[in-house]
Amino acid sequence: MIRALYTAASGMTAQELNLDNIANNLANSSTAGFRSRRLQFEDLIYQNLIMPGAAATQQTTVVAGLQVGLGTRSAASEVIQTQGDFSQTGNPLDLTIQGQGFFQVLLPDGETAYTRAGSFHTDQNGNLVDQDGDPVQPGISIPTGATSITVGSDGTVSVTVAGQSQAQQVGTLQLALFNNPGGLNSTGSNLFLQTTASGAPVVGTPGGSEGLGTIVQGMLEQSNVSVVTEKEAIMRIDGNGGSQPLVEVASGASQAAASLNGQTPSQTVDAGVLAEDQADLSGSHTEVQALTAQALQFPEIREDKVNTLRQVVENGSYRFSSGQIADAMLADVVVLPAA
Q1: I want to staple 44 with a disulfide (CB 3.0 to 4.6 A). Which of 70, 134, 148, 228 is the partner?
Q2: Is the whole-model pTM more than 0.70?
Q3: Nearest alpha-carbon partner for 120 in 104, 136, 106, 107
């Protein structure tokens, strides 16, 4: 029975983490460039009561064996790399990657970070930076007095300066591509860091032979979170396919264990039904002591409930049988005085 409790508990713990992940997805449904995550689960080890392939007799072997699983756990959180919807902003420094790849920004510690959020700005020196002030890599500087900024699909950045009729090129955006983008380390602020799992980045020109996407100016990529999908996942957890059956398994195992130990398993008792019982327990101190001792055997019975139980009987103002009071106590039902 204890094994069933631990197994069910492992499932409930895994589903709790699943809900945490869904909540984070929903919280970032309006975050530009956000990539949703989906939890992956794996079964735990098995107890081999009968090993498959073991010898049944000298001439035969066990065909299937007898293995009992010990639950589940959260194994990984997969980053969903599908493209988010585009929203038109009209801001010339709002850029979107149509296809694969990440923008590159330089962090204060000198490390390069990667992002899909293309909401860029210029700092006091005219450098192109992200919303946290981290400069785009390779660095691009917009000259003072620029009247227009144009970013081509290949990442070429050109500006028109007052007093000049022709646009001048001031730099070219480069994108990074990873063999395993799901292995990137999410650090917050819409940023990812390279890891051993992600592999080294392949850096190139947008739309080039490396398979990198192209740049779209004046638009932002929104989060790829599907609110409908996330709500459906919550319903699956709350419904028959989620944690409720695990709770029932744990409850059943607990009641079975209590029965094996000679204890009365908890029951759901309707207080309205209790009020119909007119058995007077006034002055039955022996029964009070026995009932109190029985209630203390259950860890969910608090001391204040035992005291309430004692008062119920000793005061003689309540008219219920001892069995009904015990059931009500174990089921966490408030026992009201008889009318």
Answers
A1: 70
A2: no
A3: 136
